[in-house]
Amino acid sequence: MSWPLTAEDERFAQSLVIHEDAALIAFDKPPGLSSQGGRIKAATLDDLLAAFARSNGKRPELVHRLDRDTSGVILAAKTKPAAAFLGKALAARRVAKTYLAIVAPGAPSPRDGRIETPLRRVSQGREVRMALSEPDHPDAESASTGYRTLAANDEAALVELRPHTGRMHQLRAHLASIGRPIAGDSRYGGALMLGGSAIPRLMLHARAIRFPHPSGGERTLEAPIPDDFLALLERLGLPAPAASAIAMAHAAEDPSLG
Predict the structure, then answer these.
(1) Could you tell me if 236 and 153 are in contact, meaning their C-beta atoms sit under 8 angstroms apart?
(2) Cβ distance 43 to 16 under 8 Å?
(3) What secondary structure letter does DSSP report for 6?
């Protein structure tokens, strides 16, 4: 369903832009805004792309998705060739994404590592979630997530995540599988109270994305850490990572991440 945009919607859409060039637009998606249509009948980021339509009516198209309650950087292609180029880069795992998550209780063990447990989709009423799977299950999907602990105390930890595959709810299911679900993630057993207060939402943020640009070379784009995420870190006594440190460390560690 197409959602008619008001002038306020268009201003809001423009306020989300963190980068724009001839080939693409990068947005800082806030939590609570769906990437594309689902069960909830409300405006989505995909609907808001109408604010960037050209005179011929053609508008940008999203090249990947974020969960509704995940914040952070997301890309839209402005032309069909750019969409095809970025789609192929994603399929070839040439796009490196870095996420931040607040998990509990405390740091994972080991503090840094890689989770490679296969996942499969399981329906529970109207909801679909990812469950751990045996590799030989007919519905098994390979999944790989690199992680490292940036800061921790006995109550919670700030973790950097590097998905090597792009399965639905992969980061959420993988962290839950090692006993450190993401704070605010009721579907996968995450803590709903930390630091003496309720968790406002799923504490998962798409911090940076590195990708080959359709016009040549590579580009790294970052989304600032949201205020609610920073406030929870402060309440927990955990330091926030410095700007650009995440993306630079990510690139230095493994240039093939995808």
Answers:
(1) yes
(2) no
(3) P
**8 Å CB contact between 81 and 47:** no
Is residue 9 annotated as a catalytic residue, yes or no? Answer: no
Task: Give me the residues paired with residue 147 across strands.
Answer: 113, 161
Inter-residue contact 158 to 149 (CB < 8 Å): yes
pLDDT digits (tens, 9 = 90+) for 175-234: 999 999 999 999 999 999 999 999 999 999 999 999 999 999 999 999 999 999 999 999
Distances (CA, A) of 123 to 127, 131, 174, 177, 185: 6, 10, 18, 18, 17
List 28, 46, 47, 67, catalytic entry = 67
Predicted confidence (pLDDT) per residue in 89-132, tens digit: 999 999 999 999 999 999 999 999 999 999 999 998 888 999 99
Residue 136 to residues 117, 142, 164, 229, Cα–Cα distance (Å): 12, 10, 20, 38
Nearest residue to 27 (alpha-carbon basis) of 74, 69, 70, 92: 74
Using CA atoms in the order 106, 110, 114, 116, what is the torsion angle rounded to 10 degrees?
Answer: -90
